[in-house]
Amino acid sequence: METNIQKSFDFAADLAKQLITLATGIIAITVTFAKDIFDKAPEGAQCWLFAAWIAYFISILGGIWSLMALTGTLDPLQQGTKISIQGTNCRIPALVQITLFLVALGLTITYAIKAL
Q1: How confident is the model at residue 2 (pLDDT cuts 50, 70, 90)?
Q2: Alpha helical stretches, state H, the chain
Q3: What distance in Å separates the CA atoms of residue 110 and residue 21, rounded to the nearest whole number?
């Protein structure tokens, strides 16, 4: 395999892992301090954080799906298939993960603004 193709798979896998780590960490921190967070928040603001948790969780699932797609692309079922990161089997899960992570981040920020 060419070096640039191998590097593209490495970078895509690293990005997916980083977003999984960030989403997991944000969920862990906000759940750990949920009692303190919810006690100080006005009524109705909690729904923003719950929505963010759901979006982070789906983003994590998208990241796992993305890593699985990258792995499957590196070892295709049909031998002789051109190995590329540009296929929809890699792009769709990556798009799901990144989009939902950004949505979750926006929901978390919205919660913080409403809670102030």
Answers
A1: confident
A2: 3-32, 34-40, 46-74, 88-115
A3: 21
